[in-house]
Amino acid sequence: MVDDMHSEITLFVNGKTTSLEVDNRRTLLDAVREDLGYTGPKKGCDHGQCGACTVMLNGRRIVSCLTLAVAAQDAEIVTIEGIAEGDALAPLQEAFVRLDSYQCGFCTPGQICSALAMLSEHAEGWPSAVTADVSPDAPTPELDAAEVRERLSGNLCRCGAYPSIVRATLEMAARKGISS
Amino acid sequence: MKEFAYRRATDVDEALRLAAAGGDTRFLGGGTNLVDLMKNGVEAPERLIDVRFLPLGGISETSGGGMLLGATTTNSDIAAHPDIRRRYPALSQAILAGASGQLRNMATAAGNLLQRTRCGYFADPSEPCNRRAPGSGCGALAGEHHNHAILDWSPSCVATHPSDMAVALAAFDAHVRYQTMEGAGALPLSRFYLPVGDSPHEETALPGHALITGIALPSVTPTLRSRYRKVRERASYAFATVSVAAALEVLEGRILDVRIALGGVASQPWRARVAEDMVRDAAADAELFRAAADAELSAARPLRDNAYKVTLARNLITTVLTELAASERL
């Protein structure tokens, strides 16, 4: 029996639809990990400060630890488990492996989800805090290391693998033809 | 976290009715601040009314030639909007200087205005804080306050307002539009936040159960240049130590219009009207900018550990005005 403090919701995660009953307090992070079994998104700080729980909601990166599951119903959610096709790694995952873009790996699912969404934001012409001229008439800034560091500053890596994370992201950007 | 009921409002009237129905209710926008504070036990509402699905999104032109930011528009969408970047670049820059890409994708325009201070004593229910628990005292006044206010604080509270966006909105004379069961209203940003006084828990001049519906930006002349500069303790993803939103219109070396707002120095965005009055109608000159900044900051009452902010604010004001005046001559 559902009372005021619980809700029956439907979550669309990685192309699959699941109906479940949740305590309204349940975060999207806990719901995808505990209820749906997608343990890729990680609980680091649980306060929106580390980015380890980053997933995409309707194509945009968000932190799932500050998103209530009940508020995320009906949205299209993609976790790290949803970015590759079958067992083949997505190109950015492959670059992370080849370039050693992690040590313990705890922040990696969030880093990759964040970086992929960030590349889309850049492709849409979004400026960043280090973009010298935010005018829409100025050319969209090339993604260089400074731009990548700024745009990914919401993802912390306690191992300090940042140089390789930036390298892998820049390689991906180059493949998409948006970097020198 | 305390248990709460959740309702998703489908129109503004329903949201207002639900809010007025009694009980401790909060509107839920992006949740980036509210959900976090609920986890900490700082906020413990009985009901959340999700307003993100109300028809209050988007950015549009107003009849007066300004722009209207819908209350539920995300911070990302405002910062990326071509007309905001072209006409109000300091607003785009201010938003981009705040939080992270993920948080800007979640946070709404109205929620940004209503976010609470990041004072550590406010965020920790085991500490005294008049803003969170009226009458319990202020832990920061004699405690850890190196990043607290230098202007207009009271012995009740020395916290600063954390928003970058609101600082730029203050410089552009934005108005906050809201709705209550009785009808629609608007508040200029300069009167939106209440002076801190001895009741810091009363933060805004919004009537009870009001729902913010949008933020109106007045029109600006095409020759008004604006810029946002922020100093913080790390290169990215940190709240302001001191920030400046400034706008300048210069014709043949003479200043026709000037707006200066400071962040990180007071309980609300600080419009530097003393400095503006000294600079308006004068010849653009770095020494004048420095003197105007000094005059503004003569009202500063730094705490034991934050006098550095006075110097920082003076230098930031001087630098940003000088940069804007130089860009005018290009």
UniProtKB/TrEMBL annotation, chain B:
Pfam families according to UniProt: CO_deh_flav_C, FAD_binding_5
Keyword field contains Iron-sulfur: no
Positions of the FAD-binding PCMH-type domain: 1-222
Keywords: Oxidoreductase
Keyword Oxidoreductase attributed: yes
Highest taxon of source: Bacteria
Protein name stated in the entry: Xanthine dehydrogenase family protein subunit M
Taxonomic lineage from the root: Bacteria, Bacillati, Actinomycetota, Actinomycetes, Mycobacteriales
